[in-house]
Amino acid sequence: MVTPPGPSASEGINTTPPKSIKIFKLLQKACPVVGMIATAILFAGVYDFGVVNLTHQVSGFAGSALLTLILITLLGVVADKGITAYGLTEAEQQREGLLAKVETRILAVEEKAAGFLSEEYERVKTENENFRNEFQEIEVREKETIKEEIEALRLKNSKLLEQLNQQSTREVDVIIPEVEEPSSEEQAA
User: Fold this and answer.
1) Distance CA 124, CA 115 (A)
2) How many CB atoms lie within 10 A of CB 163?
3) Which terminus of the chain has a smaller tally of CB atoms within 10 A, N or C?
4) pTM for the whole thing?
């Protein structure tokens, strides 16, 4: 007989049935036997067997046999329901045990993942901080370089502007000689 997979007794679930279930199983086996005996008594009380003629001896038991047959049928039904309920309860316990087992495994995996992720997170965080510091240093150096270049260009621009002014002044002086003021004689003429 192959046993279904599931948690064993070593996993914390009690696999031995309680006494009430044992009694229900015994009733389930005994009810058909007692029911057949009660039916035989009823049958013998109703019909005359000829030679045996049990009608008068069994007629007193016929009423109690009918009552016994009804009670035995009810007991069989109750025993069936009790065993089914126990089976469902046992299945529910197995399910809960398996769920607890799965939850513990999931938590263990989550903890491992968190451990791996925290190590990875710390590594990435440190690298990010290093990159940020390098970027800030490069940014500061580039800003200083740009400021120096701007100052150098401004100085060069002012020198070029001054040279341009001087050259344009010289060219204007060359093109236009200094105009002498006309003398009074030239003004009279």
Assistant:
1) 14
2) 10
3) N
4) 0.32
